[in-house]
Amino acid sequence: MRAFDYHRPKSLKEALSLLRKVENAKLLAGGQSLIPTLKLRLSSPAALVDLGAIEEMRGIKLVGGTLTIGALATHAEVAASKDVALGIPALARLADGIGDRQVRNRGTIGGSLAHNDPAADYPAAVLGLGATVNTNKRAIAADKFFTGTFATALKAGEIVTSVSFPLPKRAAYVKFRQPASRFAMVGVFVSESVGNVRVAVTGAGSCVFRAKTMEKRLAEKFAAESIARVKIAPDELASDIHASAEYRAHLIGVIAQRAVEAALAGK
């Protein structure tokens, strides 16, 4: 790890000012992704801007048909939140299955989304629920937020402040874990709302994506049997030491059916 300056602003305004003034500064939320890259010298910022003291970026609230989660909410806080359990129980269960206890108590939803690891869980929920990522500058629809491997629509000087989730009629997330890391080799988030079905897949490709053929079939009849014969092409899927692209394509079909069954069962 190389030397760097450390800043801990107490407001969003102060954090944005530091980003403008300090060249080659990196934002630090929970640090579960950034700290390892610093240790391996894969990232060498001149300064870290720690967002941990900014209270305005915390909190979870359920108002009407929208669940809003502050960017600094940890996975453990999302998992334990009564508002999340009431509004979108599938999201609470997803958060409770991220990493291990240390990761869940340090990692944040905003940090996870900004990092956009191809095998992360939250991107599947955000895309699978049609959520909106709010920043200090604008509101970004989920379909436009994730742009590639570790890449998002965020621009320089833009900070994720919260995420707004519309409440679905029912939803579920199922993942096939990589045993060591608990990242998703394949994870599928399915949701049904009035006139809308979404199926988001993580862990299988270079970035989270929607399985639109499955969405179409499920919109006609929301049942596992509706997508039993849907084949996913392996052409653009990931292939590594954990699983081939062909195996991941097969897993998507299996896991998606289990997610639909879980949604119907309220699990």
Low-confidence parts: none
Portion of residues within helices: 25-40%
Identify the strand order in the major beta sheet: 4-5-10-6-7
Mean pLDDT: 96
Structural class: alpha+beta
Q: Assign the CATH class of the largest domain.
A: Alpha Beta
Number of helices: 11
CATH names the topology of the largest domain as Uridine Diphospho-n-acetylenolpyruvylglucosamine Reductase, domain 3
Strand-residue proportion: 15-25%
How many structural domains are formed by the residues? 2
The helix-strand sequence is EHEHEEEHHHHHHEEHEEEEEEEHH
The CATH architecture of the largest domain can be named as: 2-Layer Sandwich
User: From the alpha-carbon coordinates, what is the Rg to the nearest angstrom?
Assistant: 18 Å
Beta strands, count? 14
Principal-axis shape: globular
Main β-sheet description: 5 strands, antiparallel
Distance between the termini: 43 Å
